[in-house]
Amino acid sequence: MQHFSRARRSTRQQLTRTVLAYAVGHVCAATALWLPVAAQAADAPAAQARKAYDIPAGPLEGVLNRFGRESGILLSFASDLTAGLNSPGLRGSFTVPEALPALLQGAKLTAVSQGQGAYALVRSSAPAAAAPVAATLAAVTVKAVAGHDDAAVYGAKRSSVGSKTDTPILEIPQSVSVVTARQIEATQPRNLADALAYSAGVVRTEGSDRTADSFVIRGFQAGANMGNLYRDGSKFMVNPYNGQQELYGLERIEVLKGAASLLYGTAAPGGIINTVSKQPTAEPLRELGVELGNYRRKQVKGDFGGPLNTDGSLSYRLTGLARSSDTFVDHVPDDRQFLSGAIKWQIGAATALTLQAEHLHSRTNYVYGLPTAGSILPNPNGKFPSNLYLGTPGRDKYDGKNALLGYLFEHAFSANLTLRHNARAFRSEVAFPSTSVDGLDANQASSASHGVQDRDDFSKAYTTDTSLVYTVGGGRVEHTLLAGVDTTYQYHRSIRADREVKQPFDYFKPNYVYEIGQAVPNLWNPVSVLRNVGVYVQDQMKIDRRWSLLLGARHDRASERQIPVDGVSPNSKESSSATTGRAGLVYLADNGLAPFVSFSQSFQPVSGVAFGGARFKPSRGEQYEAGLRWQPAGTDTLLSAAVYQLTQQNVMAADPKHQGFGVQTGEIRSRGLELEANTRIGKAFTVLASYAYTNASTTADTDPALVGQRRGAVPLHAASVWGEADLANFGVAGMKLGGGLRYVGSTLGLFVDGKVPAYTVADAMLSYETGPWRYALNLNNLGDKRYIASCTYACFFGERRQVVASATYRW
What we know:
The protein has 811 residues and is mostly beta strands. Helix content is 7%, strand content 50%.
């Protein structure tokens, strides 16, 4: 069968009917691996024009089809010529005659000109050679998943989080931030919040928590329980105390900012955080590393991948670590065992199946918050020490075990039509006995209340996502059509019992020996079962190669069933539905400038009933955004600026007429400016910088005193900068020096009165590479600054200085 960049309409219609019939019968077992697109014919002079390309490695057929579209040539070839072959991709500035040999490198194929911008592939007796060195940039090994950038660079040029298709960030009409594996390796963040500390508009909630990944994005709370966390494009985790993700198992972190229900369904309006798992590699990958640090930190880690057979149709990835460590808070460990694996079967040139599994065992303790007096407010007894532990040593713990099992199955019916099906199962078991210490007595030295709680949590979730991607062009308009359905099932159970502690806790002279009362079952936490089904459609239109227009709509049906554990109260079930959409427009100028405007929506179910028994409506989010990106051709620079207004309606407020009930008359509005820069200055310096102005306030509430008040835990100003110098340019080969500053402006307490002072912390890195070895020294909070990071229900210290020395061997 011949593959052409432009298909006849009748062929497309026949193919569409065939595929739709196939999809109905195989919706749970078929998907597409590659996103090839049609190439457009061009006149002969276009082939001689030099143009910048950034095409990742992958199956030869998909790479050639993408090159055809971007170059404008008409490229034809027989399916059997490319079956089972891969291409190294293309990165740099080339003419078409220079680019084709580079794309075909290693394959016994030649592209023969047919005239008028048309080429045909034929067999040759020798493998194609690479393009001339002068026409290419330095060789790069691609280790990311298909459709993503090289993980060895700081800046990302493409992402799927904004469209669920492989799209240049420049063409996404909504703000996107990406943290690459290279940035994670250089900055050595402790968790997701640390990794996103150099991204605009994202801040942590509790400073030193090691039990949950929770954030504030564009002024709104975000976390697993609010539907904001995703893994490989599917909803991830159920409850915030399912634990923190392991960064060593990730290829990258992507953030889509603002309302995003079109592609992701139920979620709080701040945005979506999508983490991307490490995937099997076509080339051998072997890495072993050891780490030593303060607080008795010891860690070993390994990352392995590559082909499993001679033709490369089977490949794998195996990643793991083991860590034993204390922390700056007394009696709080940071121990972890992690193992993830993936096997990819390239069934044919157009079909692949990737099996994924992950196990994570975390042992730590929850760090309970401190009163405002002694942390952000004066206390006659002095200030609390940052290492103060409020729990019960030997009794309190966080012992969490998470497991993940899933697959990505993809099949391409043609260069224009792709079907994907992804599924995942998640399970979490947490033993979580804890101690609560609240308030201050009259002397402001001891607690007003003191108690402990027995707690065991269990969560499970099942997700699926099935979609069709159809690309069509041939004229002034190119379409990438996406239609899909996703399902989510989430179950959470928390068994608790409360115990009274008769002695108060002394904050300044901690007493950890006290009498604990009998267990009294806590019956206030019902079992929760959530289900959601969403259907979405999206059209990305490229008009005259100048305009990128995105239109989409989605409909969701969600239900929540609560099962009381008191054995008396009846079960309750609430159902809701919502239709959301998104529209955006980008202009692509020749000089790399790309202004954009967009409108997007979100929704989030709300549990409970109003006085009189009426069910609450879902809360709704709406975002208006305008921005400007600049990405000069052939450079590693991406500069972006965006302004937005993000509003959440149907927010719960106290019912002024009926005590103990709520009404949905509240509204929260966030307006902001975000700036991000990811650039290289000369050959020696790499710079990341961000700034965010976030003005989030209550605009409607039944309590007039709250109207116009700034939202708690949201800094008005936040900024960061990270720079890295390659000292090889100064005569010290293999050595790099990096450093950064993170500034977070003052915030208000979320549920407590008081103002959290602004703070600035510095980070530093020194690394040296020689042969297969990489040695590094990372220092986070270089000056060991003592500061309060945030106040929610209480106040939390930020991390003190962390020093980690590492040695990594790669071969």
